[in-house]
Design a protein that fits this description.
The complex is a heterodimer of chains A (338) and B (546). With 338 residues, chain A is an alpha/beta fold. Chain A contains seven helices and 19 strands. The chains are: A alpha/beta (338), B alpha+beta (546). At the A-B interface, α5 and α7 of A face α1, α5 and α6 of B. Bound molecules: zinc ion (ZN) (2 copies).
Chain lengths: 338, 546
């Protein structure tokens, strides 16, 4: 093994999140903190109850929508440095994951650390693309860090979706997609593929889609499912949270084809377990090649791995003579945001 | 291969039985010959490529993908074929045309141990992900995609509007790619005649009795012997023994096959001579003793002498070319009694009928059966024809009550297939002495069934939240959860530290109410060991019950 370089004393990986002990600031803490830097609005990163919340404007809007009005902290633009004390600057850099998502660049006396949060490298019409940022320590996510995960082009998945709709005019097409990010991306990609009919939304999706539109992301004609009769929904596309697939709510739809948009759909049994008939491999995270490619591209002195299958990426780093360690953060189990 | 690969993928994602049947029927009706025949063979588990072992596939992938990354991927996916199909690197250059099912089967059949690796690699290089998955499933035997042989045959019958019973009847006489079957079903040829061939006929099976009370005027009772159910056939000078699934096991029992030359088809239980089941009068050793005779490549004279096998006959299906299956059981029983007197008494006897005045008396006999290590009772409707499968109301099995013990969960492992993301295989233990006196837990068994889907999710959550150690795919858990385990019997075992092995253990209840310290001690289990001279052998692997 390679000897570990001296870890800067101003950053520490705790089970509750990344901690900056000299100023007592936290990144994506899982319990209430006085000062929280939040990478993006997904529930495993953004929790309620913090004193001051520092995030991009869109992320703060998303948090406000989910947890109520934010009192402390303020919204930051991408690439706008924030002095957080002890000579540390924090800068939000686009992560390409969902609307408002950011990596956090931490700098102190020339030392540079990137906390990626969740990120992806594929184009996404609903958010600003990932911005590669050189650093000494890269703290990367590892949600899909197994070589079996290679995401196909999204155009292929959208084409399969539209083909299934075409082939089943008597059935509705129900897409399970996470309410923040995935749902809006699928809708935007459907529009890009030339689908301009009304897309029907589960009630839990409506507010987030409205927020996206307010932020300038055009999603085309949308309407809540509750406004449509059963007959109208034949041959129509409906988007719901993954947990609503197979629910009592879904039973009122005309013979729905269960689709689900998630990177986990790459594995057959994952789809089968959720009774998914049409698995769509659409992920807002990097696949294996993008994760490893990003490490090679940024070539940090050390990589810290969190949030997923740390063991595989750690092993890959060892194979490539790259310094790496796994962090054990709580509350980051596999979830539907994939 | 694309069409077959698409069929498999569609089947995996299709929930309803009717939709699966429709997909299969459509394929069987419209795919070209002989592809569809080979596909049917694959779907019914009739393909076997002796040179293509699962190990070859693992070797091939390890030459292309780092072994640790493969192992981690395999653990996550839960299925080797799928993992390899996802990880297989596309060869450089343009993709050559993909093989047909027939071509793939021909290449795999012709492969030798020396050529199997390049043959499989060459095929994988010519296929996309779904194609690789289909090929590997075909090549390594078990498809395990939620389609049973029965369902595939039902789809075949549906595709060509023929009777399923007719398909089942001739099925075992036919060989892949079933050209004669397709010709008959599509009306191009007559039904294949199998009367003079030594082939397997579908078994008649029993349903559990549950709580019913039967009138013994209508039902006859026999003991349920614990061996393996077999069919013995003699036709055109050849003798064959078949297991429950129709597998030819003649080679394992030359001592039986040698002495049977009566033209006909008989149904019975294969047992080893002994005094474990039903004492001296019962005349049969434990299932453990019979295990010594199973799955052997070479059956030595010593082995035959040490574990002398015999068949305890239950029924007669054919007698000298005459099909007796439509006759009532009582008539067949008379024919069987006459017939058995003509057979070699060392190798054949008849399963005696139990005399009981009424059902209550029978219940008492069943309750007493544990003392004599008999598994339970069979009840057969006196007027029942010999019907293939498990028809309701005709035959019942009435097993004795299972034993139970309170055990503590110690380790958990991810399941495979549908359960690949759940910790669904549990190792549990009992105390060497009371915990307060310094006792420790020792594993006494493993179970992966008996719980509902909802309980599985709860157990999975328990494992994840209480993991104290990880060893590859295995998690050691905090020793706090009591599981009530049901099992059919306990055998002495030298393979386990605890000295015992459970027969058919399954989780019967999750005892969240019970502290781990109050779980049972190993000595309680030792007290349940069946009185069996031949049972010092290995533990019993699960086998299909009947
Ligand atoms: Zn996220
Ligand atoms: Zn996340």
């Amino acid at each position: 093994m390679l000897a570990s370089p001296k870890t800067p004393r101003w950053i520490k990986a705790e089970r509750e999140g990344i901690h900056l002990p000299t100023t007592d600031w936290w990144i994506d803490p899982s319990r209430p903190a006085a000062n929280a830097l939040v990478t993006h609005g997904h529930a495993d990163h953004a929790r309620g109850g913090h004193g001051q919340v520092w995030a991009t404007g869109a992320t703060r809007d998303i948090i406000a929508l989910r947890y109520g009005t934010l009192t402390g902290g303020r919204g930051l633009d991408y690439n706008e440095p924030l002095d957080i004390g002890d000579c540390i600057t924090a800068t939000f850099v686009p992560a390409g994951h969902v609307l408002g998502s950011a990596q956090i660049l931490l700098e102190r006396h020339g030392e540079r650390i990137i906390v990626t949060g969740d990120y992806k490298r594929r184009p996404d019409p609903t958010c600003v693309p990932f911005q590669p940022t050189p650093c000494d320590i890269l703290i990367t996510e590892a949600t899909f860090a197994l070589p079996i995960f290679t995401h196909p082009p999204i155009e292929r998945e959208i084409a399969r979706l539209l083909a299934a709709r075409e082939a089943n005019p008597q059935r509705s097409l129900l897409i399970g997609a996470y309410a923040l990010g995935k749902a809006q991306r699928v809708i935007a990609e459907l529009r890009r593929a030339g689908y301009h009919e009304t897309i029907w939304l589960h009630g839990a999706m409506v507010a987030m889609c409205e927020l996206y539109e307010r932020c300038g992301i055009e999603l085309g004609p949308l309407a809540p499912v509750s406004e449509a009769s059963r007959d109208v929904l034949k041959g129509q596309i409906i988007v719901c949270p993954p947990s609503s697939l197979n629910s009592a709510w879904a039973r009122r739809l005309p013979d729905p084809i269960n689709a689900m948009a998630s990177g986990w759909m790459r594995v057959r049994q994952r789809a089968v377990q959720r009774n998914v008939e049409l698995p769509l491999i659409i992920s807002d995270h990097c696949d294996w090649n993008e994760l490893t490619g990003t490490i090679l591209e940024l070539s940090p002195e050390e990589t810290w791995i969190t949030h997923g299958r740390e063991d595989a990426l750690l092993h890959w780093c060892a194979l490539h003579q790259l310094r790496a360690r796994a962090l054990d953060l709580v509350g980051r189990e596999e979830d539907d945001t994939g | 291969m694309e069409r077959f690969a698409r069929l498999l993928t569609d089947l995996i994602y299709t929930r309803s039985r009717n939709s699966k049947l429709a997909l299969l029927a459509d394929y069987l009706r419209t795919a070209p010959d002989p592809d569809r025949g080979w596909a049917l063979a694959g779907l019914t588990g009739q393909l076997n490529f002796p040179s293509v072992k699962a190990g070859i596939v693992r070797d091939l992938i390890k030459e292309r993908v780092d072994p640790v990354l493969f192992a981690l991927s395999r653990d996550f996916v839960g299925d080797t074929a799928e993992t390899v199909s996802l990880l297989w690197p596309a060869p450089p250059g343009p993709v050559p045309p993909s093989p047909t099912v027939s071509e793939a089967v021909a290449l795999l059949s012709a492969a030798t141990r020396a050529t199997a690796k390049p043959v499989v690699a060459g095929l994988l290089d010519r296929l996309d992900e779904d194609g690789r998955f289909a090929l590997l499933k075909l090549a390594t035997g078990a498809l395990r995609i939620g389609v049973s042989a029965r369902l595939a045959k039902t789809a075949f019958a549906q595709a060509f509007s023929v009777q399923l019973d007719d398909v089942e009847e001739i099925w075992h006489a036919l060989r892949p790619p079933y050209t004669d079957l397709f010709s008959w079903a599509s009306g191009a040829a007559a039904k294949p005649d199998i009367t003079s061939r030594p082939v397997f006929r579908p078994f008649m099976l029993a349903n559990p009795l549950e709580d019913a009370v039967l009138d013994l005027a209508d039902y006859a009772a026999e003991w349920k012997w614990d061996g393996i159910r077999i069919q013995i056939v003699h036709a055109s000078g050849e003798t064959r023994l078949f297991s429950r699934g129709g597998e030819d096991i003649t080679a394992s029992f030359p001592d039986i096959a040698r002495v049977f030359a009566h033209e006909g088809v008989l149904d019975g239980e294969l047992l080893v001579r002994g005094a474990a089941q039903g004492g001296e009068a019962g005349g049969a050793a434990s299932f453990n003793a019979l295990q010594q005779r199973l799955g052997r490549k070479v059956v030595t004279a010593n082995l035959q002498a040490e574990y002398p096998a015999f068949v305890r006959l239950y029924d007669v299906l054919f007698d000298r070319g005459e099909d007796l299956r439509r006759l009532p059981w009582s008539d067949r029983r008379v024919r069987l009694e006459n017939l058995v007197s003509q057979l070699n008494p060392g190798a054949f006897d008849i399963s005696a009928l139990i005399e009981a005045g009424d059902f209550d008396e029978l219940a008492d006999l069943r309750a007493a059966a544990r003392e004599t290590d008999i598994e339970g009772l069979m009840l057969k409707r006196r007027d029942s024809p010999y019907e293939a499968g498990r028809k309701a109301g005709l035959w019942y099995k009435w097993k004795r009550e299972p034993l139970t013990a309170d055990c503590v969960m110690m380790y958990a492992q991810r399941g495979s297939g549908k359960r690949s993301s759940f910790y669904s295989d549990y190792t549990f233990g009992c105390w060497t002495a009371p915990e307060a006196e310094g006792g420790v837990l020792l594993p006494v068994g493993k179970a992966y069934s008996g719980f509902s889907d909802e309980e599985l999710r709860w157990l999975d959550g328990f494992v994840r939240k209480h993991t104290v150690n990880r060893f590859g795919p295995v998690r050691e858990v905090e020793k706090s959860l009591v599981l009530e385990v049901a099992f059919d019997a306990v055998n002495a075992s030298t393979r386990h530290k605890s000295g015992i092995a459970m027969r058919f253990p399954r989780i019967s209840r999750i005892r969240r109410d019970k502290p781990a310290s109050e779980a049972d001690e190993i000595r309680t289990l030792r007290g349940m060991i069946a009185s069996d001279p031949g049972s010092a052998a290995s533990s019993i692997e699960a086998r299909p019950g009947d």
